[in-house]
Amino acid sequence: MSNDTLTVEIWRGREDGRFDTFEVPRMASQTVLDIVTYVQRNLDPGLSYRFACRVGVCGSCAMTVNGKPRGPAAPMSTRSPMKAPCAFSP
After folding, report:
1. Could you say which of 3.40.50.1820, 1.10.8.80, 3.10.20.30, 3.30.930.10 is the CATH number of the domain covering 5-89?
2. Strand intervals (E) in 1-90
3. Backbone angles phi, psi at 73, to 5 degrees
4. Distance separating alpha carbons of residues 41 and 76, to the nearest angstrom
5. What is the C-alpha radius of gyration for the chain, rounded to an integer number of angstroms?
6. What is the model's pLDDT at position 45?
7. DSSP-based three-state secondary structure for 19
8. Does pTM surpass 0.70?
9. For 71-88, what is the mean pLDDT?
10. How far apart are CA 61 and CA 50, in angstroms?
11. What is the dihedral of CA 85, 27, 31, 81, to 10 degrees?
12. What is the C-alpha to C-alpha distance for residues 75 and 55, in angstroms, rounded to an integer?
């Protein structure tokens, strides 16, 4: 991982699934939803996920990030950036 990229692990499947690892570019004001969207559009078009408002209001896109429930439409903190690898799961 460089300072320009972020290593993320995204859960694929149900109980018997697995984490797949991806390198994504770091961006200013990046959200977890931005990261998942980048993976789906550029690295793995088979990835599916749900969202509605993209502004953190509706809760449709809720997921677990590094073992903690999170609304992925909210921006990641620039004061405490995510440490790699970041693990995203339902």
Report:
1. 3.10.20.30
2. 5-12, 18-25, 63-65, 68-70, 86-89
3. -80, -15
4. 20
5. 12
6. 94
7. strand
8. yes
9. 60
10. 5
11. 50
12. 9
Under a CB-based contact definition with an 8 Å cutoff, are residues 35 and 8 in contact? yes
Q: State pLDDT tens for residues 36-56.
A: 899 999 999 998 876 666 655
Q: Which residue has the tokens 């339902």?
A: 90
Q: In what order do the strands lie in the sheet with 86-89?
A: 18-25, 5-12, 86-89, 63-65, 68-70
- What lies within 8 Å, CB to CB, of 80 at 6+ separation is none
Nearest alpha carbon to residue 33 among 20, 18, 12, 51: 51
* Cα–Cα dist 76/56, whole Å: 12
The length of the chain is 90
